[in-house]
Specification:
heterodimer; A: 263 residues; 10 helices; 65% helix; 0% strand; globular; B: 140 residues; alpha/beta; 4-stranded mixed β-sheet; 3-stranded mixed β-sheet; 2 helices; 7 strands; Aromatic_CoA_ox/epox (chain A); Ferritin-like_SF (chain A); Ferritin-like (chain A)
């Protein structure tokens, strides 16, 4: 693979560092929360193979969160475990898309498909970041994300073209999730400057490619209908009532045993 | 199978002062064995009588199954795990999986039964020629 010239961590301006820290946190938060929702299927998925598959996918997403937060730490951020387990719902910056309860299997697969396609396209573009540590993470993660996209695209197709019941559920999931998906493409504060300097990829361009890809799959191939999305979405600091109980469960063990080092 | 068979060890250097630095690359970013691998590398070098050991991990270039050496591929096949196909320069986001051969009879007439297997690096298949179910390495 080709590598682009790099900007090392010390050459970022203070403003750039702040914005990049925020961006990395936002990316990691989506991964962590979605991984937790996926993990809720462990022992409950429709078939054993899917139980395993979803646990694998969740594990990959947590791996990506670990990469983002480790990079954030080199830029002055807190320890990754601290970030994951010791922030409350007011400080998490994940989208509402990923925090909604897991719903039925169609809901979980449609959500994962919308998320995986956006992540894969963003990562693919981020491999060309002028900031080498981010380009390296993207090059690693995108190879894993490819498998998620294959898997969830197939499931959405199978459900949408399956029985009238599976089609109804898949369409219902898409109708509920679609308005939230646009939030994945909200820039963070200071993102424009990072994009101008080539550190971050152009989010609008990724959004356009994503819209094209998911429309071809969901509408043209699967025969689903895309609902109208609201013109504006609240920011990532506005959560549903579902995030607090999720965090309470996810963080319980870490908070009960704050000094534990070996699990 | 060792981590060198897997192509995970990227560099080993010995400084004039005798410090040994081993650089390895993870297979999957979420691999839960990373800490164990790191500790095992350090211990293996210490067992050689070296006291000053540093183990580093690197993401670049990202690990690929193309680095699994031929001998290890053959051992995987003999064990019943289909070795990974060459990754090639295919489309990044493709919906069709790479072709896989049955490790038992060599047939390409196989079906994937699960796209994720018992570990992050494998998928599940069944061969429609010899009826053998088997695991196959993903091409990453």
């Amino acid at each position: 693979m080709t590598t682009t010239p790099s900007i090392s961590g010390t050459e970022l301006t203070d403003t750039q560092t702040r914005a990049l820290l925020l961006k990395l946190t936002v990316l990691a938060d989506d991964e962590i929360i979605l991984a937790h929702r996926d993990g809720e299927w462990t022992g409950h998925a429709p078939i054993l193979e899917e139980d395993i598959a979803l646990a694998n996918i969740a594990q990959d997403e947590l791996g990506h969160a670990g990469l983002y937060l480790s990079l954030a730490q080199t830029l002055g951020g807190s320890d990754p475990d601290q970030v994951a387990f010791w922030r409350g719902p007011d400080d998490y910056r994940n989208t509402r898309l990923v925090e909604l309860p897991k719903g039925d299997w169609a809901f979980t697969m449609v959500r994962q498909f919308l998320y995986d396609t956006s992540e894969a396209l963003w990562l693919e573009a981020a491999t060309r970041s002028t900031y080498a540590p981010l380009a390296e993470i993207a090059a690693k993660a995108v190879r894993e994300e490819k498998f998620h996209v294959q898997h969830t695209a197939l499931w959405v197709e199978r459900l949408a073209l399956g029985t009238p019941e599976s089609e109804r559920r898949t369409q219902a999931a898409l109708t509920e999730l679609w308005p939230h998906a646009a939030q994945l493409f909200q820039p963070v504060e200071g993102e424009a400057e990072l994009t101008a300097s080539g550190i971050l990829t152009d989010l609008n361009a990724v959004h356009a490619r994503w819209s094209d890809l998911v429309t071809r799959h969901l509408v043209d191939k699967c025969g689903l209908t895309l609902p109208d999305a609201p013109a504006t979405q609240p920011g990532r600091d506005t959560h549903t009532e579902h995030l607090a109980p999720l965090l309470e469960e996810m963080q319980r063990v870490a908070r009960q045993h704050p000094d534990a080092e070996v699990w | 199978m060792s981590i060198t068979d897997m192509g995970m060890v990227r560099d080993v250097t010995v400084s004039d002062a005798g410090r040994v630095t081993v650089t390895f690359t993870p297979t999957f970013s979420g691999c839960p064995a990373l800490h164990v691998i790191r500790d095992s590398i350090e211990q293996a070098v210490r067992d050689l009588g070296v006291t000053d050991v540093e183990v580093r991990s690197t993401l670049t270039p990202p690990w690929t199954t193309d680095w699994i050496n031929d001998d290890a591929r053959e051992r995987l096949r003999q064990y019943g795990i289909a070795p990974p196909a060459p990754t090639g320069e295919g489309q990044l986001i493709q919906l069709d999986a790479e072709p896989t051969r049955c490790p038992r009879c060599g047939s390409l007439n196989v079906r994937m039964t699960a796209s994720f297997g018992p570990t992050l690096c494998k998928r599940m298949y069944v061969c429609d020629t010899c009826r053998e179910p088997f695991e196959g390495f993903k091409s990453v």
